[in-house]
Amino acid sequence: MTARGPVTDWTATTLLAERDWLRSLATRLVRDEAERDDLVQEACLAALRRPATEALDPRRWLNAVLRNRWRFARRTDARRRERELARVDVRHAPSAAELAEQAELQRVLVGAVLALDEPYRSTVLLRYFGDLSARAIAKREGVPEGTVRSRLKRALDQLREELDRENGERRVWVLALVPLMRREPVSASVAAATAGLVALVLGGLWWRSARAAQLDAAAVPTESIAGLDAQAASAPTKGGRIDREGVPAAPHGTEALVRAGLELLVLDPESQPIPGASVTARGDVAFDVVADADGVCSLPLVGWRSDYLPLRVDAPGFVHVDSTLDRGGFSWSSPYVVYLPRSVELEGRLLDAETRTPIAHAELLLVLQSDERPADRSQSGADGAFRLRGAPQGWEVQVEVRARDHVVQRRRIQVPNGAGVPLELAVERGDELHGRAVDALTHLPIAGVQVYREENGFRDAPSESAALLATSDATGGLVLRLGEEVQPGDVLVTAVGYGAVRLRPRTDGFEIPLVATATVEGVLRDVAGRPYEGSTVMIAPHGFGEEPGPRILEAVGSELLVEPNARYLAPRANVTTDDQGRFRIEGAFAGVATRLLVFASRMEHPIAPPLQPREVRRIDLTAPRHGTESITGLLRINGEPAPGRVQCRWPGGGTDTWSGPDGVFEIHGVPSGAVELTAWPDEYVRMLARPPDTKPTRLDVIAGQIAHVELDLVLELGTIAGRVTTFAGEPRPRVSVVASARGASWRGLTGDDGRFELRVPADGGTYQVAVQGAEPVQAGVNGEELVIATRTSARLRLRVVDAATGAVVDRATLFVRPLGRAWDWKGEFSVDPAGLVEFVLDPGRLDITVGKVDDGYPPVLVSGLLLTEDDERELTVELEKVPAVQFRLANPPLPSPCWVRIEGTSADPTFALRDMGGGSSVDVHFADGVAELLAIPAGRYRLVASSNRKPIPLDPPEIEIGADRSQPIEIRWQRADAR
Predict the structure, then answer these.
(1) Pairing mode, strands 629-637 and 707-713
(2) 20 to 30 A from 239, CA-CA: which of 320, 363, 599, 882?
(3) CA 494 to CA 517: how far, in whole Å?
(4) SS3 state at 825
(5) pLDDT tens for residues 563-585?
(6) Hey, CA dihedral for 887, 890, 893, 895, is it positive or negative?
(7) If you ran DSSP here, which 8-state letter would residue 728 be given?
(8) Pairwise CA distance, residues 313 & 42, whole Å
(9) What is the DSSP letter of 784?
(10) In 842-914, which ranges are E strands?
(11) Can you state the percent helix, strand and coil of the chain, rounding each to 5?
(12) pLDDT by residue (tens digit) across 21-65?
């Protein structure tokens, strides 16, 4: 291929040579073929009229010209449509009858406003007729601004319902109100206020209709607005263009499984609505909405076509919650429920652990486990007193203390549910260690190295809550103050131009060797040699999760000794190719095997030989399999546009995408030729079996053209209905009901009367219907109404103390086993300042175990604990610390690979309940022939060993562990054939 260089002679021949490339670029900007050809032609003419004034690459110059013409065309088109819409009423003046109808509708609208109940009526009048902002109304009425927005939304919903009752079909009065939306300069104040109110009453109704409904053919003939998009004035047909600004309603078939929208229900911990809660979305779709008086807000998700939607939900008096909507993980037909914890204030005193004197002017951070950003910051006073706001009631949080001449310390705190007890935080001075940071290859010191306390062990860069411990000087010198509780993974070392390291220096005179990184740059092209824009290129080690470790230093020839706990973080840098297909990745590790991943084409490119420190290597890539063509389409389920998953397959490859709530989907990077498309509703994405009507739709993709398709999915639906009550027969409102079958689930919420109705596929067979507080029940489709009686939860307040000293034991582990069920791990918990932690459990007879294995406390079994409905029980469990058990291998080493286990001989496995695995055995890990186990109670145990699935006889096969553990237990292994 001949290399292209800069040109100064802009001739028609030059432009013709680049016409195909220009057309490919225009495909990404314009979907209509005729508009695309016009754009390419205008760009060529503009380039001929005003050629480049200096030597430039032709594609770089044409790219700028084309995009400028596209932006100009968009602005021109928008202005033209505004002018034509403004002239519609001049060209076609309404008749006297039409004016009378509009006047009557205006009278009805104003009358409906005056008929609203308070405080909705006054809020609407102040907003639209008094022309006050929501903030001004809130200040005038003495209420939060969110309450004003909630009242306005509620009032507008009531106005729409009233107009529906007065005028019948909504589409009729929507079209009749459209002329009232324009404000004329001579309009009276009431007319202007009505225009603003009309715009809000129409709201999303305006945009949920097609543009054909905006200018109905009966009122405004299509030929009079020739400047408008003719395609938008009619419903799309098979293979026709999909109008992204609004999808026309399809003829109704059987009832749809989903609706094009989603409601969020925001509740407090007692399942009561939180009016005025704000919901903010980030990512592909950004919006801010406010919950109404019922805690409900409708999410404007017309454009949501990604896997996830991150949300932040917040309300005054509550702690914000970051919730991610996972496509396929919820039902569009049911509100998505978010619970906000109540916000409380933590207060206490900060003391020196040795002298017990107050520590003044220390910085304290409140860190929520679900959020790396500190929820609040505070500074201790002269008496050590501090206050932290925004702690979630009943949650476990972390409080980080940063005090001069003291260790940066994080304490886990259980936030009390009731009246709080002041905290007392004691901070140690720790050990002051001196060392330096050096280049691993040259052994020269590195200035500006930063050392952080960062507990998120997956990060190779500090988060907002990370504490800066030290920065190296010109000699690479570092002074660190660390306590015993600081683990190797908690200390992060970073420097510009070097890879990140996690380690914990333990001796004076330490050295931290850092490895200089390399850079990879290049160009990504498709198989036709065209630049591949917008593709993610990533550099990663061979095998995700693989850590380079000290072998990096061996590869670059370093002789420096590294502590065994050092962990070198392999970066996974992501970059996106620009409009020329270019990418540049900095921070790649040298000396280890790495690879480039291209997500758009799912290709991997090994980097060989390994990169060298500070090397800049150029790697040009060609993306195989995928093409540059696109498919747009519309997914209908039972005749209605609906969200779902669309799968596109072609020989040797394929890709998946989501349709939005409007049913519209786009697929890019498709090769020309025959492809097959299959679609599912969202709920079916995780199913073990496909829906019955999933026959692929075949489509021929032509190079240089955008393919259009409509997918119609027909599902036979049925109903599972019932009501949820208490055991006394009282209705349970706002309770989640889940029906599951074949790996998929459909969710619903009970109403104020406790009733629910789930629309599910009729061919799903028998569904398991689950409600918290009740045993799951089996139900068929269209069967009798279910009555599910639920128990209200019980509350267990647990205190754990040392049996010998009576001191409170923090960070213990709880397992719960309902009668006849398996053990359920409830996690590792902290206690509040009063030494308590509260659990919400289902009532019944329970077995529980509490222990703290890491500190030598074996689990203690509390058997047959009876909790009744609404029970509030306080329980104290005493833990007894036992010495560690040591083992010595008489004939090391064991064959590799090999595992050794110790098993309890009793039927009760509680001695081994120390983590999520549970079970009745504990692994024994030998190092140099020695092993140690913590928290093993006295008793008789079996020893079992195996290598490559073959048992290894151990002598003795059983051991007795008593109170005296001063001497190690000696064991010997022998080959299986040596008996």
Answers:
(1) parallel
(2) 599
(3) 12
(4) strand
(5) 556 777 766 677 888 888 899 99
(6) negative
(7) T
(8) 47
(9) P
(10) 844-852, 857-867, 872-879, 885-889, 899-904
(11) 20, 35, 45
(12) 777 677 656 655 556 666 776 677 666 655 554 445 566 667 767
